[in-house]
Every structure is written in structure tokens, then in C-alpha cells.
């Protein structure tokens, strides 16, 4: 919903939040109301009129935040043929120029499925999904399962137009625009499952008398496991130091040894290099990389860094200030924290490193590796008297922009906030909470 204030400023309201879009003239504000039914997707500033330039600016600002949908039809009065729903910010549809001799085929990543009473076309590599409103278009999509010449397609009766099918080939990277976080979708429908599973019938074997009481446990590891908890509030008056960060990374992620081995494929195979680290990894692949968004660290400038685990060094990566702030703000929101973390560690996977060997189970192994790495980070943070918190959401598109790496080559699979935690209050004794994932 667009709200207009007395001073001419426009505010976009959605999902309980509001975003200021700037001040506009009265005529532009009036024209903006036509966005409820739709404006033509041609350049609004083509004739140089001030009002068109203002509308163009407004529309671009809405698009930058993923707040626009794009309707395709023969006219504004006709029924929708396709509705393009952006799945990532900054999406703007583009159409490649195609000649009769060009050949097109549907992406192997594309999926046509039912969503409620609608059909949608989507791809994990596309910045938007497409709601298919015309059955003829669904038929045309099926035809594109095999390569087709544009000339042949244009000869077909009632062919809906190549432009309707090709927007996704020029989309920005993205995954989805679905709501995330603790949404409690089944609240009011079914009762919440209990924290502890109901007991199996049968005679139990009581182990409590065989276990040492917590006060009698001398193992440092057992002590760390009992003390581990998630910290969401950090003491910015006494931030984590560079020396502490160095020790933390050295103990959790630094390369300990390197080696090589030849793959036994019967008639000889390629030689593979390995680099062992403190945590276990499926097939010793160690495909995980650490990237640090630093907000407040004594002795280290704020910025974005890659941790070189081999040389035990931080390598700065040039990013836009608003990108760094957006990453830290997203972590703050995900943790339901009062402020951004002092350091946000993004765990990224080099997917090819593990899929080269394991194929279909590669992603499952990556998620297992992320789990053991996060536990390792928790344990070391606890041992050093620091605060840490695992975060269950990451912005794949933002990470790709910050690193310049295609998300399917190396992409984020987890995050962990680290810093000097504030003193724990008596009401903050739960080990973890809903903001952690």
C-alpha cells in the first residue's frame, strides 16, 4: 500500500513495515495511484516531462525493494496472460533481441508447478517467477522442452509471443521472495508438538545412576557443552579484539595439514589435494569458506573480509557500504537482536568441491558440514568467554553481489554472529531461542 503524507512524501507499507520513497509533486502522487491497476512498462521519462521522470524514479525505487509485479497482456483491459513476481530486489524485466534464425530452449533448471489454483514457472537461477494465467502459454512452455527456432514458433497459430517466455533468461540471481523466519503457519490449526517425544512403551533401563552428576564432571569438553548458549546482545563498549578473532579462527577453521591422493578408478585417476581443518568434513572435502562482515572489532577496520584458512590471514574485499550494512542489518533482524553483531561470519560452500565426488548427496553432506562447523564455533566462543549465535537465514543474492561470485559456484549456507556478549540477565537463561534459526 502507498501512503501519502501532507509534505508530499510517499511511504510503501507492507508486512507491518514501512519504507520511505521520497517526496514527489502533487501530480506525481496522483499518477502514482495508477500503480494499483498498472502502468505501461515503457520508459516513463521518454518525452522529458517532469511528472514522467518522477514516476520513473518512484517505480525504480519500488523495484529496487522488490515491491513491483509485472503484468503481461495485450492491453490493460484484457485478462492477464502472465504475471511476473520478483523473487529478489533490483529485479527489472528485460527482453533479448531475437532473430528468426535464433534457437531457444527451456532452461534445465526450470520447473512448472501448481501453486494453489495457479500454475507458476520458476527457476532457482532466475530473479523472478512467472504466474501463468493463459493455458496457451503453458502449452508453449512445454514445446520449449526441445530446442526451437524462433521462425518456427512465430508461424504457430495463436503463439503468445517469445517475449512472454524469455524474461527469466535475463533475470538477476535469486531464490525466492517467500516469507521467512518464525511465521508459525500452523498456530490455531494444530497444537504445537511437545519439546520431548512421548515415551515408547516397555521396560526402561535407567542410565541416571550410571552417569556422573554435573558437579562431578571434570571433562573440559563436557563443561563447554553444558555452558554453550546463543548470545544475541553484544557489548560494543568492549568489542572483540583482533587478537581474539585471530585465536578464534586459528582454533576453529585454520588449515592444519595438506596432502594429496590419487583417485582409484581402476585404470588410474586424477590426483586430488586435501587440507585438514579442526572440524570433520564429508570425504575430507572441506568445501566451506568463511567471510567476515566486521562492524566493531578493536584493531580491525570495519569491512568485508575473506578468511584465508591456509595462510591464516584476512583478505579485504571491496564492497559498497550499503551492502555491508544490509548484511549486518539482516543478521540483527534474524536474531531479533537490539543491534547488529560485532562480527558476522558467513559460511559459504564451494559446491563443486564436494559434488565432484558425491553427486546426488552433495548438498546433504554440505549441510552436515555446516552443522559441525557451527558447533565448533559455538564451543570455541564459549571457551574464550565470547558470545556467539547461529543464524538460519542468508541472502544469497546479496552475497553474490558482494563477492562477484555466481551463487551456484560458491554460495552462503549458514551464518554465525560473534563478539563480546553482554552480561546475561536472569531471564536470558534459555540456551537457544526462536531467533537463532
Nutshell version of this structure?
The chain has 437 residues and is of the alpha+beta class. 26% of the residues lie in helices and 22% in strands.
Explained architecture:
The structure is a single chain. This protein has 437 residues and is an alpha+beta fold. It has 3 domains: 1-67, no CATH class; 69-177, no CATH class; 219-436, NADH Oxidase. Helix content is 26%, strand content 22%. A 6-stranded antiparallel β-sheet has the order 15-14-13-16-18-17, sandwiched between helices. Strands 4-5-9-8-7 form a 5-stranded antiparallel β-sheet. Strands 1-2-3 form a 3-stranded antiparallel β-sheet, covered by helices on one side. A hairpin with a 2-residue loop joins strand 7 and strand 8 (118-122). The chain is globular and about 75 Å long. The two termini are 30 Å apart.
What is the number of helices?
11
Shape: globular
Please give the radius of gyration in angstroms.
27 Å
State the share of residues found in helices, binned by percent.
Answer: 25-40%
The count of DSSP E runs of length 2 or more, i.e. the number of strands, is 18
**Secondary-structure content class:** alpha+beta
Amino-to-carboxy terminus distance:
30 Å
Characterize the biggest β-sheet. Answer: 6 strands, antiparallel
Query: Beta-strand level of the residues, as a percent range?
Result: 15-25%
| Highest CATH level, the class of the largest domain | Alpha Beta
Q: Looking at this structure, what is the CATH superfamily of the largest domain?
A: NADH Oxidase
The CATH architecture term of the largest domain is 3-Layer(aba) Sandwich
